Each structure stands twice: as C-alpha cells, then as structure tokens.
Amino acid sequence: MTTLHPLRRPLAVAALAALLPLTACNQDNPVANEGEEVVGGNVGADEAVTEDLKITALQLAYPEDGQWEEGEDVPVYAAIANTGSTGDRLVEVRGDDFADAELTGLDGGSGGIEVAENDNVYLEPEGPPSVLLLDLGTSLRSSQSIPVTFVFEEAGEVTLEASVASSPPDRATSRRRRTPPPRTDPSAV
C-alpha cells in the first residue's frame, strides 16, 4: 500500500477540491442546449411567424365559472415580438372553433393591430390592443386548447394551439398582496 508524503496530502486535497466545481460546470445546461425546454418559461404557446416576428405566451382567458360554453366570446392573452427593422400588422385571427375574431388596435379602433419594428405588443382583454374570439363553437375547460391562426399583412400566417389558462391571472398577484413586507427593524411592531 502506498501512502502520500505528509506534505503532498494537502496538495492532493486542494487539487481535488479545485476539480469538483469544474465537473459541475460540465452538467447539462438547458439554456445552452438549443431546443431543450427551459423550466419557468412562458405559460402559453410560442411560435415564430418569421425570423423577426414571433407570437409568445398565447393563452385563452380563464373562464370565471370554470368553463367556456359554446357561443361565448373568449379573450386572448399573447405577446407579439418584432425584432426586425420593419413593422407589420396583425390583420386577422381565425379558426374552425369560433365564428370570428374582434381585433382592437392600440388606438381603440378595429381593423388590425400594428406591430412596430423592434417592439413588443401585448394582447390583453383589459385594454387595447386586444383580440376577442367571437361565438365559440365548442365548450372549453381549463388547459383544453383550440387551434388559432394569426394572419399578418407582411409576414403571413401561423397557427398555434391556444389553451385555456389554468387559473385566473390575478390569483398569484392577490396572494402576493396579502403577504406583509419583511420587517427590517425588529423594534418596529
């Protein structure tokens, strides 16, 4: 059996300690590995229309009573990201599971939604711009989805699965509001 010289033992331990963090760096990194899902990303569907124009976080609003019934109008949540040097315009939203869609632009007018160059547009029911799917042709509950096609004036069209949100959007924020802020001064009561 061989033993290390007493002075070499601390050097061997130091070398081993230096190598351990390097082996941890070699573990899989989903952000660096293109195509792998990263936990904690957008809730809804994401899809590129072109290299510069993408629809992200697409969801249908959560129904107040737990289910969207046939014939109801359903609000859409999404973000449209334009990283290009030219603007575009969302001119139509269509699908087989609803009769039509109402598009409300930033100015509150109908007829389309401008997506400026190098900008993001957030579709939310609370105000313009917004998209409302009219006369739903099927009933939907939380996490069920329907295909929705977005048509752009220049970029063309893309179809995504739009799923119903799993909970109301303000449920998480209302929980945060009830949590008192941490105290910094222990004498303050």
UniProtKB/TrEMBL annotation:
Keywords: Signal. Pfam families: PCuAC (PF04314). Residues 1-26 form the signal peptide. InterPro entries: LpqE-like, PCuAC_sf. Residues 159-189 are annotated as: Disordered. This is Copper chaperone PCu(A)C.
